[in-house]
Each structure stands twice: as structure tokens, then as C-alpha cells.
Amino acid sequence: MRFLLEMRTAYFVAKLGTVTAAAETLGVHRATVLRHIEVLEAELGRKIFRRHARGYSTTELGAQLLSSAETIEQELERFVGFSKIAAPSLDGEFIIASTPPGYSPTIIAAVKAFRDLYPDVSVKYNVGTTPPKLELGEAHIYFHFGPKLDTPDYVLLPWMTFYGGIYASSSYFEAFGNPRSVEEFSKHRFALLTDEHYSPPDDWIRENVPSENIIFTCNERPTVWRAVIDGLAIGSLAHHLIHNHPHLQPIAAPFPGFESICWSVTHVDAHRTPKVAAFFECIKEAGLMGVGENDVDPDLMPTV
Q1: How far is CA 279 from the centre of its chain?
Q2: Closest CA to 262 of 199, 195, 192
Q3: How many helices (H) and strands (E) does the chain have?
Q4: pLDDT at residue 1 tops 50
Q5: Burial class (CB in 10 A: 0-12, 13-18, 19+), 164
Q6: Are strands 141-145 and 92-98 parallel, antiparallel or unpaired?
Q7: How confident is the model at residue 292 (pLDDT cuts 50, 70, 90)?
Q8: If pLDDT is split at 50, 70 and 90, which confidence band does 89 have?
Q9: Fewer CB within 10 Å: C terminus or N terminus of the chain?
Q10: pLDDT of amino acid 149
Q11: How far apart are CA 260 and CA 239, in angstroms?
């Protein structure tokens, strides 16, 4: 395409405001940036920038050019990102992203099953509050805990249904007793996830327990689990942990059943690429796709 390089240079000058900043970002000399602007303005027959003491601002024509160049830049970023995840060979890096705290034991079980079949693949696991831009290749697959997303071009499949309960360790019950009703919660202490995280059981506890009885909060789910397992307080746990920690017991007070779906999210362009297809096939064979947590072989679940 004619003048694509010059348009990209002008885009960064307009975006960053100075020739120096554009040159540093593009890794070229200032003279190259100035030459690209001159070539583009000569071809268009009109000025695209106004020069002033603080840098460059766009003319009306320059603003229109910036809009077109921005679209081109976004498409180039998308192409480069997608090319990274569409590699045909089953080796190299496989990127998984998840909302925090990630239910790491179950995801690790899926990763182990995948790696057992494809040992040349290394897995990068990112947990963050900001969803990855799958169209830019920031992840092959994104595990989303919470309401179903409606993002265009994303493929969502129910990965696993998780079940939770409210538990304490036998050592806690020996020291403080087992609450028989919600009214008795004021005599007990609780450990919770911080409230910015998706957790129906923790939300229910927060609504039914006096705030002064919540003695431990953490933004990492496995740490809250550990606090309950070690007898610090009552808290919500995933049911699969009971297999690994038989000293855990449910509280006696009646409470609702808790379940939440985790969605596997992929971009439509990446969904059938070799790595992503192999990952889904592998976890289906291992019984780790489209099932309830209680249906998973307990031996596949790592301890916390």
C-alpha cells in the first residue's frame, strides 16, 4: 500500500504530539519522521499538522487522516497478536488468563492434563481484573467466573460448574462450636474474599454476618481457603477441597446451595487453531470440560 509507512508515522506524531516522541516510539531518527510528514503532505497537497511551540496538532484533514491511520494500526496490532496464537505447531507458549483469584487448583489440573500430552508446550497463566484482549492475542483462552459475557466475536462455553459450601475445620468447632442458626453467627468469626471479587457464598455471608465478626479478608481465594482449613475462621470453600481435607465440616446452620459457572472464552478466529483445539480436546478427555465440579475425579485435583 502506498504511503502506509508515512501514514503510520503521522499517526504517532498526532497521537503523541511531538516529532521526538514519535521518533522514539517508532525507533527512527527525527529526520525520518519529518521526511515522512513532508512526503504525505506533498502527496495530499494540504497540511495535516499545525506546528506550534509545544509540538504538533492536526488540521481538519489531519484529524481525518488520524482516524483512518488509527483503524489501520489497530488492524495491524490484531494481525500481529493473532499470528502469535495461531501457530500451527503444538509447542511454544500457551497463554491462559483468568479472573481473580482463578480457582487455581482446577485450572492447574487442566494444565497438567494438557502438558502430559504436549510436553513441548509451556503455559503462561495470567490472573487479572482486566479481561485480556483475545483479538490481540493476549491469551489463547480466558476463564471467566461470573455472568456470561456478550462480547462480539467471543466463543463462550460452560467450562465447569463449581459448588461451594460454608465450612470450618474440626479444630475451629472444638474451640468455638458449630452455629446452629444464622442468629448465632454473631458469636463466630469469618474469613472472606474482598468484596470486589465474584463469590456468591461470600456475598451471602457478608449479608448475614455482622461486619465486626469478619476478622479476615483477602483478595486471593486460596489464602482464604487456607485460613479456613487451618482453623482461623468459618468461610466458604469449594466442595472438592473436602476430599483433600477430611477434617473440614459444614456449619450446622441452614444456608442456600451455591453454584457458579466458569466460562471458557476464546476468540472466534482462534477457537479452532491447533493449540486451542488440542487444549479443549484434552480437557474433555480428562473429564474437565462441561461438567460439575463434583463429577471430577478427586485424584485430578491438587491440594491447596
Answers
A1: 17
A2: 199
A3: 10, 12
A4: no
A5: buried
A6: parallel
A7: confident
A8: low
A9: N
A10: 87
A11: 12
Strands 214-218 and 248-250: unpaired
Which cell numbers in the block locate residue 158? 460452560
Confirm if 253 and 181 have CB atoms less than 8 A apart. Answer: yes
Q: Which residue has the cell 513532508?
A: 38
Distance of CA 287 to the CA centre of its chain: 23
Question: Do the Cβ atoms of 298 and 240 come closer than 8 Å?
Answer: yes
Residue 194 or 3, more confident: 194
How far is CA 149 from each of CA 108, 264, 273, rounded to the nearest angstrom? Answer: 23, 10, 22
Q: Are 193 and 199 in contact (CB under 8 A)?
A: yes
Q: Quickly tell me which residue has 468459618 as its cell.
A: 234
d(CA 195, CA 193): 6
How far apart are alpha carbons 71 and 57 in whole angstroms? Answer: 19
Specify the pTM: 0.62
200 Cβ contact partners less than 8 Å away, ≥ 6 residues apart: 164, 258, 260
